[in-house]
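If your schedule permits, I should be very grateful for your opinion on a structural question. Please examine both parts with care and let me know of anything in them that strikes you as inconsistent. The record follows directly beneath this note:
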Amino acid sequence: MPALASSGRKKLLPKLAMAVLVLAVAGYVGLRELHPLLDLLGRVVAAITRLGPWAFFGAMAILPAVGAPSTLFTLTAGSAFGAQIGMPAVVAAGVAAMTFNIAFTYVLARWVLRAWLQRLLVRFGYKLPQVEKGDVTDLIIVLRVTTGIPLCVQNYLLGLADAPAARYFIISYAISWPSTAAYLLFGDALLHGRGKMIIVALTAIVILTVGTHFLRRHYAGRKAAAA
């Protein structure tokens, strides 16, 4: 049986790699047709550029805590400041901003705004999440890899659930750092029409998405088996 399982995995990997490549190329071709959206995004980038990198990355560190989409920053940072400070610096600054935001919202939810957030939850008919110690790691991973949940909601829920700081930061950063870097590179390549870099960055995003999907399924299956 182990040999059969190993053989199945070996057959799956080339298919998965081909699927990733096809998705990346298809995504690139499709994005080329979104000229009106790209023009609008270009105007937004021009306005952001006038703020300067310090103001931009400062906003990136703070504003997602109040609901601003993090992709608004990751997709525009490279085009706004890549030529000015270089893409390595843009990636470093973007990752640093997201690192601060993840820590900042955790501190707000767990200590600073905890009482107010609890009252807000009660007012809207929700209970404060109660999580067993053995389930904390699973909760962090599932929230981080489930698409569609805004970053600030993830952070506030984990803070309110008293997720231990060490596990919260290690898991959150292990997932967010590579995805933030990939989106920064993708946004810069997209707005400058760099086809090869678009495919590379988009492929990285797809790989990360597929990887987190399998991770989410693994933990969901493990929880179901335990139940």
